[in-house]
Amino acid sequence: MRWSQMFLPTLKEIPNEAEAVSHILMIRSGLVRKLTAGVYSYLPLGLKVLQKVENIIREEMNRKGAQEVLLPAIQPVELWGKSGRLKTLGEDMVKFTDRHKKINVLGPTHEEVVTLLVKNEVSSYRQLPLILYQIQTKFRDEARPRFGVIRSREFIMKDAYSFDATSEGLNFSYQKMYDAYCQIFSRCGLKFIPVEADTGVMGGDVSHEFMVLAENGEDKIVVCSQCGYAVSFARAECVEPKGNNKPADLKKLSEVKTPKVTSVEAVADFFKIKPDKLIKTMIYESDAKPIAVLVRGDHEINESKLKKVLKDSSLKLGDEKLIEKITKGPLGFSGPVGLSGIEIIADYALKNERDNVVGANKADAHLINANSGRDFKVDLWADLRNITDRDFCPKCARQIKIQPAIEIGHVFKLGTKYTTSFNAAYLDAEGRSSEILMGCYGIGVNRIIAASIEQNHDENGIIWPKHISPFDVLILPLNPDHTASQDTAVKIYEQLKERNIEALLDDRNVRAGIKFKDADLIGIPIQIIIGEKKLGQGKIEIKVRSTNERMEIAASESVNKITELVGEV
Predict the structure, then answer these.
(1) What CA–CA distance (Å, rounded) separates 533 from 530?
(2) Are 130 and 165 in contact (CB under 8 A)?
(3) CB of 545 within 8 A of CB of 526?
């Protein structure tokens, strides 16, 4: 391809709306352009990268025996009601009413659709196992789209679904997809970490996320360098304190006036104590009944853990009206003492805490020296909080590290969560009916591009791994008015094409400095620099983008050397 003929608008300046490195470089290098919040157009250079990633995914999925399908983006809302996920995803779903007054969903994922498809077409164990996959655009109405394509409202996803007759079969399919993911991400040049993960709204029992460490990652992972423990932040276990070391000489419970003091920071400052001496009381509501949840003042509730403990995915934080109804006090002054008719569950970290400050369930008042057992009863103790960097590894008790990361893939053992909802069953060899066992496996295709840039860049621009680079080689004749330079560039370009090496020829009539800056910005692995002076000596220069290594070679040997380097870089 000739640069002069390619739609490749690069930018010198950092876009105002861009935060993450990948977002900045994707816009500056002409990969994407923003249409509206969380929605992007892919330009030719970006589309080439996207297609390279998709091709790798297809090759590895096909190698594992998965079959490609294309499922509809428009889905009747009734499907989501049937699976029970309509309420769970809530406002994240993009819905519209058609001319027949029927509500439809723009698919955020396709478990419901594919389960119905298989229910209608698979009836015998002889048709199993089966793995179907697709690469398709998904839609989620993100409240805060951020970091470019990392968190967007419209995104491209590879989703696969396995269907098996037995648990052993599901385990085998799951491992096949896990292995395929490792191969896909390795071929894309990513340094990734598989971690145990929370199943979330997808459901199921077993789940792993594939994470790429990145400064601008929207997720977090927890790792232990000693024993290799690696888990998603939402799933990370907090160790239950041993025993109950609360002494008998507890201080007297007392009420203190605290006018307009509501936040943890304000309360701690008022009493001149650390936040860990406070107990936060949060009122949650569900379809069943309200729940009071207690955590230490310096900790945050982990709602994934809370929903799992209570086996209630519909759980959500109560509004001001519910809080006043339950506690008889205003928002900001809730506490466990005197609560009645509501179950109280507390995080393990509070077990050995003594003489804490809590809300008094009345305006402008707190209680000091509150103690569980004496002043209020905890109905259930559980691990309910987010882990912190002050916690220790639950496996080996060494210090853990919390690191930002980008999720690029997620695999789940769903079991019968969806096949039960849709009555998707098969007949075994004895003619008995059993529910099909499912797994689902997702890859964020756009995210692979962003994650690669986050891991592979310098102050000058992108450094593409070779398998997903839009071109193998960039040819830079520096003087557009020097005929020999132009002729040599074209000759090398044509010879590389004959060898099926993808080359971009920068034939623009611009200064050499602009060509050098754009070359580093777009990050093609090998640059062929053709300068008038060196060419007069029968030589050209080769630069390897990843190392900035430069070498001079005879122009007559250039194509052979470039071919060799393309195989190595």
Answers:
(1) 9
(2) no
(3) yes
Read off the tokens for 61: 């999925």
- Return mean pLDDT, the chain: 93
DSSP assignment of 112-175: HHHHHHHHHH--BGGG-SEEEEEEEEEE---SS-BTGGGB-SEEEEEEEEEEESSHHHHHHHHH
Identify whether the C-beta of residue 157 lies closer than 8 Å to the C-beta of residue 442.
yes
The pairing of beta strand 32-36 with beta strand 39-42: antiparallel
d(CA 496, CA 500): 6
pLDDT at 86 over 80: yes
197-213: pLDDT as tens digits: 876 654 556 789 999 99
Q: Which pTM value belongs to this model?
A: 0.88
Q: 89-93, 145-149, 439-443: which has the highest mean pLDDT?
A: 439-443
* Domains of the chain as residue ranges with CATH: 50-213+405-454 (3.30.930.10), 254-382 (3.90.960.10), 471-568 (3.40.50.800)
**Cα distance between residue 149 and residue 33, in whole Å:** 11
Summarize pLDDT for 559-568 with one digit per residue, the tens.
999 999 888 7
Q: Token pair for residue 515? A: 């060509």
How many Å apart are CA 416 and CA 432, to the nearest integer?
A: 17
Residue 258 DSSP symbol: -
